[in-house]
Fold each of these.
Amino acid sequence: MADPAVDIQGVTHRYGEHTALRDVSLRVEAGRLYGLLGPNGSGKTTLFRILSTLMPPTDGTARVFGTDTTLDPVAVRQALGVVFQEAALDGGLTVRENLRFQGALYRLRGAALQDRIDELLARFDVAERADDPVEELSGGLRRRVDLARGLLHRPRLLLLDEPTTGLDPAARRSFWRALRRLQEAEGTTLLMATHLMDEAERCDRVGILSEGALVADGSPATLKGKLGEETLWLDADEPRALRDRIEAQFGVSTRLVGARVQVAPPDPPTFLASLYEAFGEYIQSATIRTPTLEDVFMVHAGTSPEAPRGRVLARGGSPDESS
Ligand code: ADP
């Protein structure tokens, strides 16, 4: 069988006393789009640094298409491209000059480089702006030029670290179209860190990192399916007390997820009626719904994926803090 694009086995990484990755094992099959989710500080960038050979892991192994990142970093770098949050482009140079410069770093030159630049600019709809300075481009166009830059040397694996941060919805959509075209035209494997749930939904497989550990790994459908077909979410002033009461009285298992109580009984509507009868005064509101990827994230990471950027809305629709 072909080597997986990424094969991480038992990787632990420490910065001094601080453990940023704990025994992480993860595989990404060639040609797939894998989304890495995790709150800030969960270790995504550390994993990317290891994969892109910027540093060896403290423990464990990381392989890219079968090649160990520590044993043969040059071969690994040849096989992968990176698109990180900050565009690696020189604003004062034109689009084409930036790409030529990048090509030179990979010893590409002459007609082969020219053709590759033209091909990528056409594919990502930036050909018309080839001779404009990058600083005159919108954020969305710049991102697509950065994508072209990361792909010049035809890497088989592309690492993307929250690549759509700061883009408006239209620019995000066209960036995603560009990724799809890339996957289809060149079979490139994509490993993307994101905190956006709608982006994660589009991935073939997602992994959730929490405090340096991989706490969930599977297709979005599988991960959601594991939470049950329908679950009940309860908001309460004192969620912990409500959980204890429910468990004591009904003997069902519950989860405390952030400030909410999650219950997955066999018949949620009937169960909810009994709950209201017993503890109605403690329940602010209740929702029954099929699990979303956000629920999966909340259950495994114990926090909302959006948490670093704002507060959960209070019931009744009024935000308790401006976002
Ligand atoms: P993420 O990309 O998910 O936000 P990081 O990989 O950047 O997470 O960080 C994981 C943890 O390691 C965090 O607690 C962060 O503070 C810590 N960390 C990251 N880089 C360094 C560093 N160079 N030195 C010390 N600690 C670091």
Note: The mean pLDDT is 88.
Amino acid sequence: MTEETKTNSLKTVEWRENKVIMIDQTKLPNKLEFVELINYHQVADAIKNLVVRGAPVIGVSGAFGMALAVLQSNAQTKNDLIKDLEEAKNILIKTRPTAVNLMWALEKIMVVAHKGSDVSEIKKSVIDTAKKMADEDVQTNMTMGKIGSELFDDNDTIMTHCNAGALATVAYGTALGVIRSAKESGKNVKVIATETRPVQQGSRLTVFELKHDGIDVSLIPDTAVGYSMANGLVNKVIVGADRILRTGHVFNKIGTYQIATMAKQHGIPFYVAAPLSTFDLKSNPEDVIIEQRKASEVTGIGDNKTAPDDTNVINPAFDMTPPELISGIITEKGVANPPYEESIKKLFEAN
Ligand code: RUB
């Protein structure tokens, strides 16, 4: 298999002729449809409405939103262009609060913009940087995949939650990138994917992309995690992350914490795979905002109502898994092991 075919298994977001093209993930698995976005407000709406989702790719999409913002701007001076970019950044940053990659990407673009000396130089460097971020995301995932695949053995059955795959990144994936890499190195690995209620990224997206790539996958309801572990159906777990703190606390899709707890109970290794852009070395657990999503995601499945009208709902999109439940954090620079504060610091020092 060439690098090209490997990374192009699914291209989630792309910059083409001054437009942003993305897969509409809300339509999967029933339809593979692409949307074409020409201004940053459309990018903000796409992130908010989960047309594009998953930590790394919302970072890249935010950067592409800034690239559209420079094209939209009529500013004649550097100062005015920076003002327009600040406005775009403020709109994009408000879309989803938990995944740190979005802030990381928007801040990186602002640094580049400030360095430019005039309007045309800034416009060019912002667009080039966004495109580079997209390319680097693919490379990062492939490197992380290779490093992480060493932790998996022939005949492993690996549980994963939500979608940390090609669809959560530009291509290849983080947690699913590790699984793809293990498979490519000749190991016969199988996957158990949780459905991931309420919006079913597991069944709609993870199963879709693994089947697309010919990887053996079985779907379970979220409620069957304990059963699967207790009955020896799974021997390792790998998930992605939306934000990782310097202490090794991992914020990821709601339900991750209960899977990690159950894995500990059954002595099953629980791994996290995420790029360095997912780390937030400054915040403490209580500083992180957990996105609360709308009630209708829980009172129905798609357009079908599954609960009475006016039901009170609690719908957090993410939870926090403490470091003592995590066996290792796989990054493109190596694997962090407990004690995390030390090993994470080392990964960044070596960077
Ligand atoms: C996505 C989610 C994913 C991580 C994957 O949530 O929780 O597990 O973003 O990230 P949502 P990564 O679908 O609500 O955006 O690819 O870094 O592992």
Note: The radius of gyration is 20 Å.
